[in-house]
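Q: How do we represent a protein-ligand complex in a form that can be generated token by token?
A: Start from the inputs.
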Amino acid sequence: MSEIIPLFRPSCTDAEISAVTDVLRSGWWGMGPKTAEFEVAFAARVGARHAVAVNSCTAALQLACEAMGVAGGTVIMPALTFASTALAVMHAGGLPVFADIDPVSLCVDWRDVARKTTVHTRAVIPVWYGGMVTGAATALPVIEDCAHACGSVGAGEQGQVACWSFQAVKNLATGDGGMITTNDGELAAKLRRLRWCGIDRSTWDRDQGRYGWEYDIREPGHKMHMNDLTAALGLAQLERLDEMNEARRLRVRQYLEAFKDTAWMQLPAYWEGSSWHLFCVRVAGRDRFVSHMTSAGVSAGVHYKPLNTYPLFDTSPLPVTDRVWREIVTLPLYPDMTDADLARVVETAKAFRP
Ligand SMILES: Cc1ncc(COP(=O)(O)O)c(C=O)c1O
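Then emit the structure tokens for the protein with pyridoxal-5'-phosphate bound:
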């Protein structure tokens, strides 16, 4: 039996290995110069004035929600997202409200955002599903969930603040990690305090020149900052982001060509600006298709079971989301995917009888 084809796989070269090894040998593993260097490089990459490095996108979203003052109000988001988007709002003292999605982009439908807006609405969190970015059409504060969108054109430019994920299978992967970008200097300063227990000076800052032990604690913050091992890996991955995303785009074009006559499979529209975090197609009889693929050793997944299906959240119906999610299926896609991997996915998928 041949090896199982995974859905995702991080790409590692000697650059990542030596970047982490250098930090291991440096004697400074905590948040320090590499974290600062990664923040500067990432901010430059997405065209933001400030970047604040944290230990996940979940943390980034929670801190952004706290700093934007969502407590006691509602925040509108799509239900077709990972739980973190909604949990971050709840942990920040707000209530998630779900808006429906656009059936093509699978991103939030801004007309439904307008319908769901009330005097209690504090912000909107659009999720750039699979790397697709839409223009944010609202006067409300926008917190972009850019977990899938590292390298997508326009990501991080639509709102007051953007939250990024470097989790193990994301386009820029560090195992776990996240970033918050913003052009607002005051917000960035608050986010820096909130990520590190409310403390106003980092240990590295205090260590420069002479050891300064004193600091002020201004608000009840969290322990959610990045460390230099993660940041070194992030810097190495950032250098390779374009090359890795180009490899994804190549495979997407090949998938689209290979499946163009497969009538029972609905393909996504090709957008050159997408990071293509996910290659998501639509198949009637999706669950049978997933079983068919996995039993042949080819991974296939679903992103996501919508949050309005879980009793923890608001379970009100969302006509497009409720219909579309039953058909969506994610096929394998990762930068180091080989021609043989792709051929096997295509051949296995085409052997499905709908
Ligand atoms: C859309 C979305 N938002 C947020 C997150 C949370 O990211 P992290 O794992 O970095 O906390 C994820 C992770 O998969 C995600 O897919």
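Strands lie at 50-54, 74-78, 95-99, 121-124, 143-145, 161-165, 178-182, 265-266, 279-283, 328-331. The chain has a mean pLDDT of 96.
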